[in-house]
Amino acid sequence: xxxxxxxxxxxxxxxxxxxxxxxxxxxxxxxxxxxxxxxxxxxxxxxxxxxxxxxxxxxxxxxxxxxxxxxxxxxxxxxxxxxxxxxxxxxxxxxxxxxxxxxxxxxxxxxxxxxxxxxxxxxxxxxxxxxxxxxxxxxxxxxxxxxxxxxxxxxxxxxxxxxxxxxxxxxxxxxxxxxxxxxxxxxxxxxxxxxxxxxxxxxxxxxxxxxxxxxxxxxxxxxxxxxxxxxxxxxxxxxxxxxxxxxxxxxxxxxxxxxxxxxxxxxxxxxxxxxxxxxxxxxxxxxxxxxxxxxxxxxxxxxxxxxxxxx
Length: 311
Known about the structure:
This protein is an alpha+beta fold. It has 9 helices and 14 strands. It has helices at 3-12, 38-44, 84-88, 108-115, 142-146, 157-170, 178-198, 243-257, 281-285, and strands spanning 20-22, 26-30, 52-58, 63-70, 77-80, 96-104, 121-125, 130-141, 211-215, 223-231, 266-275, 287-289, 294-297, 300-303. Strand 9 (211-215) and strand 10 form a beta hairpin.
């Protein structure tokens, strides 16, 4: 097959961002004295089916390392994360596509967490419970795709656009200074998690929110906190159909949130709720997404609305 035409043939065969592949082997480079990932740990256990690892040594730097390869789980899938333009490009220019792990979930906490502002998990198909896990990624050479058939992933163009935006946001997440995480992000996440554990109905409104954005802050505390809630489009799977009721419920949540901040560090001074199409360019550029699952603060993880580890 001509490599010059391979990318175009893949596009014509249906390969695109958001489609599924079968579960394939993937690899990770690790320290054999301190394996962290499940696949590295499993590969080092003698007799683990489908797993192997190779010890190697970088000649120039004498760095001891190993490579683990194998299936994550046979019932899982991979989802294409590369954009169509990168798939279309000649293998001489772009030899591989990037894929992420995907799995089918049935428990409600997992689906709810994936449908919210998680930077690591994305609910690609709510009807099937199909969740993308960005913590597992692999490269697949394009000629292999010719031997496979793409499987349905994102159910429609709207979800493909949402998936593309989620991927872009994942690689463009702001690295908030520790001072802002301590003063603003940590109180929000900690208290949302507390409400969730208490079964408080106030946070149910977040199921009707597509995205939460935080106005950028500079300088020293006290910080002025301004939140922007992006509501789903009317044809979205989780649109309520009553924006007024959603805004009223958000007002009740905001009333409670105002007490979450130390006045010496921050105060919630303003908020708004609207659809993405109604947001001005200035408002969008002046805000960053506030992930509701977790933030890193001084090397530690501040957890929010993610009730447990994903299966």
